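Two proteins were folded this term; both appear here.
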Amino acid sequence: MTSTYTLNNGVTLPALGLGVFQSAPEETAAAVETALELGYRHLDTAAAYGNERQVGEGLRNSGVPREDVVVETKVWATDYGYDETLHAFEKASRKLGLEQIDILILHQQAANLFDRTIAAYKALETLLADGKVRAIGVSNFDIPALTRLLDETSVVPALNQVELHPYHSQPELQAFHREHGILTQAWSPIGGITFYPGPWGDERRSVLDDDALGEIAAAHGKSVAQIALAWHLQQGRQVIPKSTNRGRIAENFDVFDITLSDAELATIDGLDTGSPSGPAPARDFDEKSLFPIPED
């Protein structure tokens, strides 16, 4: 199991990072500091999360050298457009307290605004060429959106951050990523943040309560969460589990000694329901979705 991946432009990314989606600003700096103390070297945030400033604060407070940590953030659709996205970089840079952002990606495909999405990605290409970011990519892009992006822009995304966990493994999208040299980055990689409807009628289930995963976890003396993360890493996906709890932050990082058998991997692959829990990637963005991103 690898501990790092090399992106398609040569940038090295740790295989496992800390996500801060839904981390309250008042808890984020401490969570970042804890994660870096425990060995994490990748932090994933977003303008829309409202905690970029606290991610930067936690990084500075940790004492870990800046150059040792990969910082990733996302531009929200409100700031799509060429000039708007250049300005979005300035806002993110100011909040994070960083002159250079390691990975900057578009947060949504914004299907009904895709001309603006393309313009935003071209701004990312400019930022990359100018050395203001080290790698660029996208999030929540499906195959049609990726296909159009590849047709209309010059730089292949380094990664696509998508919902991916044992109940929603998106094999076709993963195959498209492999074909084009795009790293699959999984948000909600454990699948325990919410409950998933799946094919069970009105019943909703948590990945953490899955019997098959529980049996595999017991066989390895690990938690279900750790088994889910190992499943990703063993199949070449980068993961960003979220927690503000020290024990869980440590547990999520203690997975590199797990080796799942081919049969175990196949069992977990077989749990896919084809049903996401999050919003459809190709949804339209209305006025409510296009909320403003503060300057500071």
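Next, the second protein.
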Amino acid sequence: MSRRGFLGVAAAAIGGVMLAPGIQLIEIARAATGSGPTPGASAKVRWGMLIDTTKCAPGCNDCVTACNTENGLDPKPTPTSPQWIRKVEIKEIKTGRASSVPVMCQHCAEPPCVDVCPTGASFKRADGIVLVDRHTCIGCRYCVMACPYKARSFVHEPLTEQTPDVPRGKGCVESCTLCVHRIDKGEKTTACAEACSKAGHGAIVFGDLNDPESDISRRVREIQTTQLRADLKLDPGVRYHGI
């Protein structure tokens, strides 16, 4: 955990300040450092994704639909609606080869969104998942500006029909959580990867990048992969093949 992030969390947690029933900032700090009871927050693990764009079908939005359904997002988003995953169509200028690329929070090892957050609301867990604590987010949107992937959204309107496992709130910033609510229950995949697999594409592989025997680690060893904006040296947890 960065010094700034730790101080932001620790300062608010002094005296056991309660944010909501059963939730304390000190618990968030423990999860971020891997010292708390959260099953998914272990430094031995680094959750990540491998997206094979050669298998990603142009015009297919199964991953987007699954994400919206899983997290209670608007199924028909407007330009101002939060969106945690989006499809980007890219074309190689020299060859004319086109690719359809899902883009979401890249869950960087060195996340700039965490560095600029003045309250510690943006934080990285010990297992590499980058999250936003909605209780301490003040809606300043510094993280939105700092993210080079345009992966964060601001909630402008009141929210209804939320899912119990994914609390959200007006005035907060949010982004892909790698379905952390699933991971902490012991499940092994995300909604987008599950939907992609069920559709028969198999373009999204989720797993532990630190486990050499995991499917994602094996695939990363076998095929050429790249990171979006690797020149920034943020070490994203999302890897791409075919771009």
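The first strand starts at residue 18 and ends at 20. Residues 3-241 form a domain with the Alpha-Beta Plaits fold (CATH 3.30.70.20). These notes refer to the second protein only.
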